[in-house]
Write a structure and sequence with these properties.
The protein is α/β, with parallel strands linked by helices. It has two domains: 29-121 and 225-340, 3-Layer(aba) Sandwich (D-Maltodextrin-Binding Protein, domain 2); 124-222, Periplasmic binding protein-like II (D-Maltodextrin-Binding Protein, domain 2, 3-Layer(aba) Sandwich). 45% of the residues lie in helices and 16% in strands. It contains 16 helices and ten strands. It has helices at residues 3-25, 52-59, 62-65, 78-86, 98-105, 153-164, 184-189, 202-208, 218-222, 234-239, 241-259, 263-270, 279-291, 303-315, 325-328, 332-340, and strands at residues 38-44, 68-74, 92-96, 112-119, 124-128, 144-146, 174-176, 195-199, 213-217, 228-233. The strands form two sheets. The protein has a five-stranded mixed beta sheet, sandwiched between helices. Strands 7-6-8-5-9 form a five-stranded mixed beta sheet. Strand 6 (144-146), helix 6 and strand 7 (174-176) form a beta-alpha-beta unit. Helix 6 (153-164) packs across helix 14 and helix 11 packs across helix 16. The protein is globular and about 55 Å long. The N and C termini lie far apart (64 Å). Belongs to the bacterial solute-binding protein SsuA/TauA family. Residues 52-263 form the SsuA/THI5-like domain. It holds the Pfam family NMT1. Keywords: Signal. InterPro entries: SsuA/THI5.
């Protein structure tokens, strides 16, 4: 075989390989009759079953029926997703609402506004290396937890929960915070830490592999919070009110869909976003989130939930005074959505 033909075959193989990769990572969105779609660049902070209503709204054709074509990006970190928003490489972000507070505190000229809430609890779980049938938070004393980055809401909720249960972070228990979010599971499997804070499906995957055991839910322990919210720059909301309204409508319909379908049905709908995970893992993770009511029933950003989140930030030492609700929240789109879209 001559060199030119070898090169051609190699290039063809690479093209086919990349095509298969992107086919596996994409959605299986149902085709809509609406051909005049408005593109929205959506940046999610991580890829997690925690965001199931969003994936349902994509794969069930709900966004498309509203006239929106979602171009989904995954930031793998609140700081990265926020950077995408402020640099105009994303139109809307699905991020922890604490990031909008940080932007205001930093004195940015462009405010980031929360306009539609997706989740109302923390979505992470405490996973132990060893099976502890009757786990108590006192079992953490003298141990190490692989946690999240300092200043992120998962880390602050963990510390809030520990303090609530009489455990002083980095005194009674060491928290490892210098590992990248997408590398923590591998580090834990490699022997780092006695416990780890994980979202789904990673928590259930460790259990299936007998590499870990879920012993507590931070969502259950910490209660209702304005946890993960759709947000955009103030100027984007002002310049694109019709698009934002349709986007919010789709979010609500995705929330309603999840509320009225079984874990198995939800898992089958979102499976394409988790091509490497077995269906039983996805079903188990969906069940966990449904049982602890992690998904908000509607997109309205609750004032009490924002206040509570800022309480967590203050107790975590990341905030000195609260930002007024009206500076970081615009509920007009959610209010209109709830008024005009009837429940089934």
């Amino acid at each position: 075989m001559n060199n030119r033909r070898k090169v051609s075959l190699i290039l063809l193989t690479l093209v086919l390989s990349f095509s298969l990769i992107f086919m596996g990572c994409g959605s299986t969105e149902k085709v809509s009759d609406n051909k005049d779609l408005k593109t929205v660049r959506l940046n999610e902070v991580v890829r997690s079953i925690f965001y199931a209503p969003q994936y349902v709204a994509i794969n069930e054709g709900i966004f498309a029926d509203e006239g929106i074509d979602i171009k989904l990006q995954t930031g793998w970190g609140g700081d990265k997703s926020m950077t995408a928003l402020v640099s105009n490489t994303a139109d809307i972000g699905l991020i922890g609402s604490e990031t909008s507070v940080y932007v205001v505190k930093q004195g940015s000229n462009e405010k980031i506004i929360n306009f539609a809430q997706l989740t109302q609890t923390d979505g992470s779980f405490l996973v132990s290396r060893n099976n502890i049938p009757n786990f108590k938070f006192s079992d953490l004393k003298g141990k190490e937890i692989v946690g999240g980055r300092r200043g992120g809401i998962p880390q602050m909720v963990m510390e809030y929960t520990l303090n609530k249960n009489g455990i002083t972070p980095n005194k009674d228990v060491d928290i490892i915070q210098n590992i990248a979010f997408d590398a923590t599971t591998g580090a834990f499997k490699g022997g780092t830490g006695d416990f780890i804070q994980l979202f789904e499906p990673n928590a259930s995957k460790l259990e299936k592999e007998n590499n870990g055991y879920v012993v507590a839910s931070f969502g259950t322990e910490a209660g209702k919070l304005a946890y993960t919210v759709f947000m955009a720059t103030e100027s984007y909301l002002k310049d694109n009110p019709e698009t934002v309204q349709k986007f919010t409508n789709a979010v609500y319909k995705g929330q309603i869909w999840c509320a009225n379908h079984t874990a198995e049905e939800i898992a089958n709908s979102i499976k394409s976003f988790f091509p490497e995970d077995d269906l039983d893992i996805i079903i188990k993770a969906v069940n966990r989130y449904k049982e602890q009511e992690s998904w908000a029933p509607n997109p309205l950003v609750q004032k009490e939930a924002i206040e509570r989140l800022q309480d967590v930030m203050i107790k975590g030492g990341e905030l000195d005074t609260k930002i007024p609700f009206e500076q970081i929240v615009n509920n007009s789109f959610a209010e209109k959505t709830i008024k005009e879209i009837p429940l089934p």
